Amino acid sequence: MPPTREPSRKPVPPTRGTRLRQRLAELRGAAVPPQPLDARALAALAANPGCRRRAILDGAGVNKAVLASALGSPLAFGQSQFAFMRGNAFEARVKADGGAELLRLVHEKVDPGAEPPATGIVPDLTAAGPEGRTARTALALREATAAGVWALLDHPLLALDVADSPAFLEPDAVVVHPDGSWTVVEIKSFPMLDGSADAAKVGAAARQAAVYVLALEQVAARLDPAPRVRHTVLLVCPKDFSNLPTASAVDVRKQRSVTRRQLDRLTRVEDIADALPEGTCFAPDLPAAELTAAVESVPATYAPECLAACELAFHCRSRSRAQGAVTALGRSLRAELGGLTSVADVLSAAHGTTGDPTDPTVAALRRAATLRAEALSPESPARIGASVTPGPVRGAGNCATSHDGAAADPPTLAERTPSQTGRSGTPCP
Fold this sequence. Notes:
By secondary structure, the protein is α+β, with helices and mostly antiparallel strands. The protein is 43% helix and 10% strand.
């Protein structure tokens, strides 16, 4: 009888996805719950794809607002509680009665050639956990597409692969048309006055909706045949100063292309995590010195635009200024300066200490420094003219005043020049 083989006691290596999740949990802190990555954060991340610090913090689910407070640079902006309550009340009104008003707006603004939505189905998307809700959303989309009727998915959950890490996104609504196409709906609380809204807010909403369109396209690609995801989204806002809903169709093809390209450029989160020192952790309860060292171990790419989109912007700005980085002055200036990456390098090149004179950037800096020195020189004609004591100046109405602003004795009519009289020859009073 052959001897029985004992089972191998060698542990089974974890899969790549499990290993990455464990690594990200260690970076976040074992007792710290993950912060979900929403479409607004993804749009901000896509706008600055070179920032590895934000990529790893968002990938690990770190709450950047809490982290900024622990670093001594708390968040200085945010949405008020009143704005939250007003937004929730407006969204509830838009979706009342089974979304009848919302479906009417979609039909009117996006698909007027379709059959008017007398009624629409609202599937139940309840499930356990984000993976369960994502699967339930995909099933509801497939069933509604096959039914060929109007359907409203209220707060569906979509998954988007970002730097080899899944991000779960929750749009306000997705509408399925009778022809099987899908439309993203964004509901915002800022008003539309006379049919138009603030351009900056509309642009931010379009970039956010473009992220949802990308996530929907991944869901559609798994179906056969793949439904059409419309690149025209519906933006619903209060009308004028009331709480009545109005809507506008917004084409997000440009925002979708830019966001897709920027997300593709993101460095894989696993590569960033592997490059970190052993034991790195971003838990906010760590000592300030240890937490600061952990954050600084990840390179950041700060720009003034980060102030409106990232909770760590104030911390990164202070570090960027301390290092004299020219990116703190703006991306456009950074592009103009070429290989000069610090303020010290720029000043040195302008003063002729360093830099290649044949470099157009260095030549322009030296020319600007020469012009500035000439303008500030005591022998400069501008400086000489400024040092001359000014004589009487002409005040309002071309009447004479003293140089200190006090009214001078008015000249007689015979002493007046043509410039001191009106068009009709009437003297100034």
